[in-house]
Amino acid sequence: MGNEATPLIRLVAAVIERDGRYLITQRRPSAVLPGLWEFPGGRVEEGETDEEALRRELRERLGAEVLVKARMAHRVHRYDGYSVDLNLFHADIAPGQEPQAVRVAELRWVPSNEFEKYPFPAADQATTDLLLGFRR
Questions:
Q1: pLDDT in tens, 34-89
Q2: Quick one: pLDDT at residue 4?
Q3: HEC states along the chain?
Q4: So where are the chain's domains?
Q5: pTM: predicted TM-score of the whole model, two decimal places
Q6: CATH class of the region 11-132
């Protein structure tokens, strides 16, 4: 066993709230961590800013333009064999746009008090806790 560096994957996600409900998406069956729910987002590609990546990912996954606002949280989480560097931003769906399940299994608008009904990846759990005011 050597001292191999664990790959670090930069991810971005959006917390989008509308009328007291938050937009969450379900990972497709073919995705890593299939079937889990998360705040919509994805991987930051080489040469992209976090904000550019978030706009691109939501356009690809939800077919909608978003207005990226302030960064609200940052978390690094270790999984088996890799780590994720997750930056979470407040965002709004652009006027006249309506998100669709384009490259996600499903999407739902849920109140924060129902998050526990939806299994989230470990890296996202701290974010849901932050929104709910939990400290673990």
A1: 999 999 999 999 999 999 999 999 999 999 999 999 999 888 888 888 888 999 99
A2: 60
A3: CCCCCCCEEEEEEEEEEECCEEEEEECCCCCCCCCCEECCEEECCCCCCHHHHHHHHHHHHHCCCEEEEEEEEEEEEEECCEEEEEEEEEEEECCCCCCCCCCCCEEEEECHHHHHHCCCCHHHHHHHHHHHCCCC
A4: 11-132
A5: 0.86
A6: alpha beta
